[in-house]
């Protein structure tokens, strides 16, 4: 129990630091990006009073329940009382919601969230919440359900509690946010949904000093990079050029990531990408593409 409380305290402290210096949208940093028609019914059955009623202790999950939840068996979960469901933990520290999210059982995830919403806010032994494991596994339908849940409940709680619901900026033991994990698996659709839901995590570095913005550039996904930078016109380009350096954590050599991607689509972002470093630090690349970019940058300066 003490170990679990220590994990929660560490995560809460980390989330506060991340939020303190970030500006978010007026709705608490969470915007609905899920298909509301497909999730509305299970959300209306959700009891908000149970959301922050976190379990005080844990019970080892039996093999039958573990296999049932992993296999997507809703009947297995429906036999459990809400309190028991919240306390169940696998040998790896996963809750029943972690297991359902890991295996991509979106309908089961809805049932668990409706019956036991507090599990959305319970981390496993890796400091990963269900949103982390769903993003890591590449299950877009589960991510959609969890994003919709966070959106729905955040609209009904106080500003203080909204901060606790901002799981988008929470890092696991490797320093990865859900957005990091989606990009590591190259699940670009999920990454795009997470960016639309909350853009703050895009600039946070993991333990390796890498931000999701850096990863998106390295992956060559121009549309995602533009979404992260929130660029729709020339004014937005100039505005972001001034603010990016102050909020970007970790590696700031975005130009190097762009060179590695070898995408001509990033030409329009050169004023932003190369404002992070001096031209001297960019040695001419032996590859033809790299040399071309290098010359282009010199002309801009």
UniProtKB/TrEMBL annotation:
<keyword id="KW-0040">ANK repeat</keyword>
<dbReference type="Pfam" id="PF12796">
    <property type="entry name" value="Ank_2"/>
</dbReference>
<feature type="repeat" description="ANK">
    <location>
        <begin position="174"/>
        <end position="206"/>
    </location>
</feature>
<dbReference type="InterPro" id="IPR002110">
    <property type="entry name" value="Ankyrin_rpt"/>
</dbReference>
<protein>
    <submittedName>
        <fullName>Uncharacterized protein</fullName>
    </submittedName>
</protein>
<dbReference type="InterPro" id="IPR036770">
    <property type="entry name" value="Ankyrin_rpt-contain_sf"/>
</dbReference>
